[in-house]
Amino acid sequence: MSMADTPLAALSDAALAARLAEEAGRLAVALRESGEFSGKALGDEGDRQANQLLCSALAAARPDDAILSEEERDSTARLDRSRVWIVDPVDGTREYGECRADWAVHVALAIDGMAEVGAVALPGLAGGTVLRSDMPRPLAPLTERQEQCPRFLVSRTRPAREALALCDAIGGELVAMGSAGAKAMAVVRGEAEIYLHSGGQYEWDSCAPVAVARAHGLHCSRIDGSPLVYNRADPYLPDLLICRPQFAGRVLDLVAGLG
Questions:
Q1: CA distance 242 to 244
Q2: What is the pTM of this model?
Q3: Domain boundaries, the chain
Q4: Helices and strands (H and E) in the chain: how many
Q5: What does the DSSP assignment read for 8-62?
Q6: Phi, psi (5° rounding) for residue 186?
Q7: CATH top-level class for 3-132?
Q8: Coil, strand, or helix at residue 3?
């Protein structure tokens, strides 16, 4: 039996996350290519259909676990669970609706508040790509230029003030990109060195990217250096730092200095 034919309930947590992220991404791409919806309506319908796929599959495959999704009504019952699946059906809905490539699908499992398992699908890339916490790839060595002039990922529509200030202080290069997942995976993929966000996010924006990035050896924390904790009563998690380890200390010191 191939992995694609394996029943969802029989898959490992990581394989389940990856398969569902890939399937939700394929569904969203097919919907976009159908031409039935466009713009904001496409984003809304993509979110709805991908969410339905993810939540129904997770409920069937892991009935004892809780689910926190951007597109589902939250329930405080999850606070009593050790294992909580945290999903963002379409991260970067605007980019998806604009037919850009920088959007993602997030599927993560938080265990006792920590982002332990995750998969981030990048369906907009040619052939689709899924990055997984259980299949880390070696990070490419940094060039001398990247060491001296690191690339900072910022939002294409609302770049964080701290990121702009830090990039200037370090002498880095700004790279604008869409979804949080796309930006985090750009660091994993060697397309940038630092992703700092302080403009407000929720747990579903970062849980899967953090699980994948940490597995690949990247530094992941709040911008004050404290841990990223999930499955809290209020899922608002306003900031994060994902970067190559060699930049973490300097970035955190500079953030503290901004006061």
A1: 7
A2: 0.96
A3: 3-132, 144-258
A4: 8, 10
A5: GGGS-HHHHHHHHHHHHHHHHHHHHHHTS--HHHHHHHHHHHHHHHHHHHHHHH-
A6: -65, -35
A7: alpha beta
A8: helix
